[in-house]
Amino acid sequence: MEKYHGIKIWVDDLRPVPAGYVGAKSVNEAIALIEEIERNAGSIEVIDLDHDLGDYAADGGDAIKLLDYLAERETFYPIAFHTVNPVGRANMERVVRRFWP
């Protein structure tokens, strides 16, 4: 049970997953991971997002779609961004400012 607590999720299709994080290459993979953590009464410390998921965008869209999913469910986990796409970052920041408490 302890393995589901304090999870840091790294959503990126290209960059290596940093130590201490669990990686997801697509939005759908990240959703499956979040739902697994929730089913096991775990906790998420942070979800750190790239915006452009390249070939993996076909598996749920670019990472902003993950923010849409979380906002629709009202599950406002802490969010960080490591994307270098300035327009994508601005759009994701706008979603967080609008919906996150």
Care to describe what's here?
It is a single chain. The mean pLDDT is 96. The radius of gyration is 13 Å and the shape is globular. Strands 2-1-3-4 form a 4-stranded parallel beta sheet. It has helices at residues 27-39, 64-73, 86-99, and strands spanning 7-11, 22-24, 44-49, 79-81. The chain has 101 residues and is α/β, with parallel strands linked by helices. Helices cover 37% and strands 17% of the residues. 25% of the residues are buried. The protein contains 3 helices and 4 strands, in the order E-E-H-E-H-E-H. Strand 3, helix 2 (64-73) and strand 4 form a beta-alpha-beta unit.
How would you summarize the topology of this molecule?
Elements: E1 7-11, E2 22-24, H1 27-39, E3 44-49, H2 64-73, E4 79-81, H3 86-99
Helix pairs in contact: 2-3
Residue ranges: pLDDT <50 for 5 or more in a row? none
Strand content: 15-25%
Distance, first to last CA: 28 Å
Residue-averaged pLDDT: 96
Radius of gyration: 13 Å
Which structural category fits the helices and strands? alpha/beta
Q: H/E order of the elements? A: EEHEHEH
Number of helices in the DSSP assignment? 3
Largest beta-sheet details: 4 strands, parallel
Shape: globular
Total E-strand runs: 4
Neighbour order of strands in the largest sheet: 2-1-3-4
Helix content: 25-40%
